[in-house]
């Protein structure tokens, strides 16, 4: 039976692909027809029937180009474009609508039909569905533009510069002392940090303060848990009654660092995940569980404004700083590894964790691929994370109330002890 079915499909491939082209045209035509459903018959330039036929025509033109003449497809495409332009020009005389979105959609429908027949039906289907979604969400897309601020657009463009422009230009080979530096991989790590911060910023921006301190602390941990710690610690002095909720926010933000570490490891060195999973999960839970307890018990105490982790979601200067820091840490790691062995790596991890955990985490995960043992990388990452959270606990004690210091400090110490114990025993 399977052989018969396969033979039938193979023998009727052109017909099946033409049917796909017709259906894809109908899909876009349904969306276009629904938008113009209030218009009378004949007033619509292109509705469901026109788009369905144009999709089928694109498939036939592609088929003719391979069986009759290579000129068939471009000539038919130009004919469809010319007819569409004449129709849009005639419509413009009656209604001053200068949008060419419908025209572009019609020409894309023709191309999707051709792709379905001669390239890949799955690719044509994905493109047609994406086109229909874009056409259907005109109001939402325009609404996002009105909400987007200038510095956010600037940040998005900078992220594209460092990822889509600069990254492909960098050499992907080992350089420097001991081959410790790979420009491509270092910059790729910079892009990874920038992307996480960018996503975290917009998660806070979209969610808003009304979602509560739980949501705010969780997503602020993606961008700047240190900034949130300082802000919430100061808030606890201004509003002592809210200190339990503020402490919960600090713990949530600091706990979010641990899933972030697992993300970095999964992307860069998946082999570290089995050794990292248990200690990192336990360290995160040691912070999350007290935070959830505080939040559930005190969430009716009042509202807290969301923290501000900086006006710009991403600054190129910050990305360059991370690149330089990563290079320095990797050079120091290579030197300390040769001079002191594993002890040098642990010393570097502890001192680096005072200022930042991302750079040393990315460096150690990269080094675990060829320079250091996975166990050494795991223990170094845990040391850096524990040190970093202890520093933030100190900030909470220095800038916040005594109760805030206790509520943050005790889970931090427990997290450190559990993480080191599990990593050491493992």
Automatic annotation (TrEMBL):
TM segment ranges: 15-34, 46-64, 70-90, 102-135, 186-206, 212-233, 245-266, 272-295, 316-333, 345-365, 377-399, 405-425
UniProt keyword list: Membrane, Transmembrane, Transmembrane helix
Any Pfam family: DUF4010
InterPro entries, per the entry: DUF4010, MgtC_SapB_SrpB_YhiD_N
Residue ranges occupied by any MgtC/SapB/SrpB/YhiD N-terminal domain in the UniProt entry: 18-142
Domain DUF4010 per the UniProt entry, residue ranges: 191-400
PANTHER family in alphabetical order: DUF4010 DOMAIN-CONTAINING PROTEIN (PTHR39084:SF1), MEMBRANE PROTEIN-RELATED (PTHR39084)
Protein name per its UniProtKB record: DUF4010 domain-containing protein
């Amino acid at each position: 039976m399977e052989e018969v079915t396969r033979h039938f499909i193979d023998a009727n491939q052109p017909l099946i692909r033409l049917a796909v082209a017709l259906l894809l045209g109908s899909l876009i035509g349904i969306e276009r027809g629904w938008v113009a459903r209030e218009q009378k018959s004949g007033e619509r330039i292109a509705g469901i029937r026109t788009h369905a036929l144009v999709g089928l025509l694109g498939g036939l033109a592609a088929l003719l180009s391979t069986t009759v003449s290579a000129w068939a497809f471009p000539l038919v495409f130009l004919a469809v474009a010319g007819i569409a332009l004449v129709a849009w020009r005639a419509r413009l005389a009656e209604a001053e609508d200068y949008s060419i979105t419908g025209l572009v959609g019609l020409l894309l429908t023709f191309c999707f039909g051709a792709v379905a027949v001669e390239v890949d039906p799955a690719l044509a289907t994905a493109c047609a569905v994406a086109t229909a979604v874009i056409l259907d969400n005109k109001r939402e897309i325009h609404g996002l533009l009105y909400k987007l601020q200038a510095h956010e657009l600037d940040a998005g463009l900078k992220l594209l510069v460092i990822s889509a422009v600069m990254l492909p230009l960098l050499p992907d080979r080992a350089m420097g002392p001991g081959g410790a530096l790979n420009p491509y991989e270092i910059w790729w790590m910079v892009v990874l940090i920038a992307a996480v911060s960018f996503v975290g910023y917009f998660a806070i921006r979209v969610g808003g303060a009304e979602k509560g301190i739980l949501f705010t602390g969780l997503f602020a941990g993606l961008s700047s848990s240190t900034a949130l710690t300082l802000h919430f610690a100061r808030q606890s002095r201004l509003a002592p009654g809210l200190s339990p909720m503020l402490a919960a926010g600090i713990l949530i933000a600091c706990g979010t660092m641990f899933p972030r570490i697992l993300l970095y490891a999964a992307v860069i060195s998946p082999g570290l995940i089995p050794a990292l999973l248990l200690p990192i999960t336990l360290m995160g839970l040691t912070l999350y569980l007290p935070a959830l307890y505080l939040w559930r018990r005190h969430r009716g105490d009042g509202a807290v404004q969301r923290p501000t982790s900086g006006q710009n979601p991403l600054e190129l200067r910050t990305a360059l700083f991370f690149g330089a820091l990563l290079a320095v840490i990797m050079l120091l790691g290579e030197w300390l590894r040769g001079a002191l062995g594993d002890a040098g790596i642990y010393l570097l991890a502890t001192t680096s964790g005072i200022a930042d955990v991302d750079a040393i985490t990315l460096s150690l995960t990269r080094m675990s691929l060829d320079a250091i043992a996975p166990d050494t990388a795991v223990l170094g990452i845990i040391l850096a994370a524990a040190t970093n959270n202890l520093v933030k606990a100190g900030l909470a004690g220095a800038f916040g109330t005594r109760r805030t210091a206790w509520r943050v400090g005790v889970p931090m110490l427990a997290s450190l002890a559990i993480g080191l114990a599990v990593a050491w025993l493992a």
